[in-house]
């Protein structure tokens, strides 16, 4: 059964929009863990528009020994006031996994992956530093990627995360077989190279089951935006359990 890692970014967006401490990230994480999720994901950005460095340290302590903690981010984004850089955050938090994403500072959300063949030499020293922190490294890749997996493995990456936005968009339109096939081909190539397979972006209760059936290699899904939106109607704990039922 793939691990469900709940992304808490949207809780932080709501908190930061109003100021103060509500919704409380610790309560959100505790609720998700009590409902049975296997991981908590955060994506601290340099502009601090949702998850901030202080949240990372809090959630690292809260999840330690209970569920996996996954920190996403661009490893090339320089440190600045309020943001010490991804590698330093990982050093402090010691998560189970660091997911490297090539997003720009002002990007609304992640929308593309690394070119593993081109980017692996540049990523190599950063992956080595993250591995020295004791965490697994995952690299965000586009669906349809079929090359570069051996290079990613050789620099120390343990997994890739398939960007599922195009699949979700196609699913909503009713004709998704081609995009699902691209995801499946990427997963198969990654697994053949010895890499684990994660997935994330715009997965929801409507499109997740079909995705899981097509990707037997799937180790983890990271879901935040859709889960939080659905939880506004159904409640957080029941929504987490509904996702877990789809993954069994």
Give structural notes.
The chain has eleven helices and eight strands. It is α/β, with parallel strands linked by helices and 248 residues long. It has one domain: TIM Barrel. Strand 3, helix 4 and strand 4 form a beta-alpha-beta unit. Helix 2 (25-35) packs parallel to helix 3, helix 2 (25-35) crosses helix 11 and helix 7 runs antiparallel to helix 8.
Any chance you could write out the topology, listing elements then pairs?
Layout: E1 3-7, H1 9-18, H2 25-35, E2 39-42, H3 53-63, E3 68-73, H4 86-93, E4 97-100, H5 116-132, E5 136-142, H6 149-154, E6 159-163, H7 165-173, H8 177-192, E7 196-200, H9 208-214, E8 218-223, H10 225-234, H11 236-247
Parallel strand pairs: 1-2, 1-8, 2-3, 3-4, 4-5, 5-6, 6-7, 7-8
State the major sheet.
Answer: 8 strands, parallel, barrel
Radius of gyration: 17 Å
How many DSSP-defined strands? 8
Q: How many structural domains can be distinguished in the coordinates?
A: 1
Based on CA inertia axes, which overall geometry fits? globular
- The separation of the N and C termini measures 6 Å
List low-confidence stretches.
Answer: none
């Amino acid at each position: 059964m793939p691990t469900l890692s709940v992304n808490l970014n949207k809780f932080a967006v709501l908190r930061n929009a109003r100021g103060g401490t509500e919704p409380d990230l610790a309560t959100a994480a505790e609720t998700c863990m009590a409902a049975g999720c296997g991981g908590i994901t955060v994506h601290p950005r340099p502009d601090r528009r949702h998850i901030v460095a202080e949240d990372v340290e809090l959630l690292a302590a809260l999840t330690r020994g209970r569920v996996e903690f996954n920190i996403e981010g661009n490893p090339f984004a320089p440190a600045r006031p309020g943001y010490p850089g991804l590698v330093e955050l990982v050093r402090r938090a010691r998560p189970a996994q660091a997911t490297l994403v090539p997003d720009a500072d002002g990007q609304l959300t992640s929308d593309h992956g690394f070119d593993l063949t081109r980017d692996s030499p540049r990523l190599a020293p950063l992956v080595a530093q993250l591995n020295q922190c004791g965490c697994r490294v995952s690299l965000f890749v586009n669906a349809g990627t079929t090359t570069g997996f051996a290079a990613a493995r050789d620099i120390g990456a343990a997994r890739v995360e398939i960007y599922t936005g195009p699949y979700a968009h196609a699913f909503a339109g009713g004709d998704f077989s081609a995009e699902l096939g691209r995801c499946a081909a990427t997963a198969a190539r990654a697994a053949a190279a010895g890499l684990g397979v994660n997935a994330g972006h715009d997965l929801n209760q409507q499109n997740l089951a079909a995705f899981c059936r097509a990707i037997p290699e799937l180790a983890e899904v990271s879901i935040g935006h859709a889960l939080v939106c659905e939880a506004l109607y159904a409640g957080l704990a029941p929504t987490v359990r509904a996702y877990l039922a789809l993954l069994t």
